[in-house]
Amino acid sequence: MATISLDPRFNLQVGKNQHQHGGVVEEIDGLIRVYMDGHVERPSIVPIVPCTMSLERGVTANDVVIDKCTSLWARIYVPSCFGKLPFLVYFHGGGFCVGSAAWSCYNEFLSNLASKANCVIISVNYRLAPENRLPAAYEDGFNTLMWVKQQALNGSTEHRWWLRHCNLTSMFLAGDSAGANIAYNVATRLGSSGTSDFTILRPLYLKGTILIQPFFGGEARTWSEKYTNQPANSALSLLVSDTYWHLSLPIGSNRDNPWCNPLANGMAKLRDFRLPNIMVCVSETDILKDRNLEFCTALTNAGKRVETVMYKGVGHSFQILHNSQLSQPRTQEMMSHIKAFINE
């Protein structure tokens, strides 16, 4: 896949839309523009593709509606296989503000992952900010799990095409960037007081959580946030990160909101969570590297089982953007690590 670049046609509409909707109040070049009256534009920087497009050989995919009221849907990938497989509930990245389960880069990556790791993947198309600020994405994640549970309990014939391949006792929450943040926050909700041992999920069993370059922040800057030099084609800069948080957190919150900064309340809160095994994938040249490593250390000190994997020479979202010469081999490494983790 080619490196994603800005479609210059988007800029032709700026003058007209400023007249219609007032001035631009927030913008991430090429990805999102928010106007004074609340109107939001997201240019088609990444193609939206049907579920049948460019699938890995042997993989079947279909889109399913989870909640018509909130327009929540998912794309499900099933590799050709025999027997029951682990299944991943996956959340895409995009700073909570952009992205789609139908983006071509996720369709390619997750189709490939389903084939290479031999697992069923449910890719969730959750609601986006700023129209739907947090915790909307977390609610969509939780509701997706409850929907899967209901299909399993009902013995749904409509969804038998993928459910019959799933090992219900081997479910994983996974995601990259903002999607990893969603996976973590859904897992902590499940493991908080009153739902210990994830009994609310039965007959599903949450076996682990896979966090790829988890999108966290904080008011205090880390060394990598302040000093890591980012190339022009980087997926995440400090300014972009701050804008995403400003658009997605509840109005009036700062970056020490626990949804952004899981360490804001100290170690005591982490110890209270009953969490399954966690794998954290960190990129060496990502501005989030130090924050991700601090997070892993805190989880370990809180008694959680954490596997940390560092990918050398690549930056944020390398596995979907292919913006480095090392992207392809590192992506294959990541898929091998995920396969090993879900089959432990």
Care to give the gist of this entry?
With 344 residues, the chain is α/β, with parallel strands linked by helices. Helix content is 33%, strand content 21%.
* SSE order, one letter for each helix or strand: HEEEEEEHEHHEHEHHHEHEHH
Top CATH class of the largest domain: Alpha Beta
Give Rg in angstroms: 19 Å
Approximately what portion of the residues adopt beta-strand conformation?
A: 15-25%
> Judging from the principal axes of the Cα atoms, what is the shape?
globular
CATH architecture of the largest domain: 3-Layer(aba) Sandwich
What is the straight-line distance between the termini? 31 Å
Outline the biggest β-sheet.
8 strands, mixed
Kindly give the count of domains.
2
Spatial strand sequence of the major β-sheet: 4-5-7-6-8-9-10-11
Computed structural class:
alpha/beta
Low-pLDDT stretches are 1-12
Tell me how many strands there are.
11
Mean pLDDT: 91
Give the full name of the CATH homologous superfamily of the largest domain: Alpha/Beta hydrolase fold, catalytic domain
Tally the helices: what do you get? 11
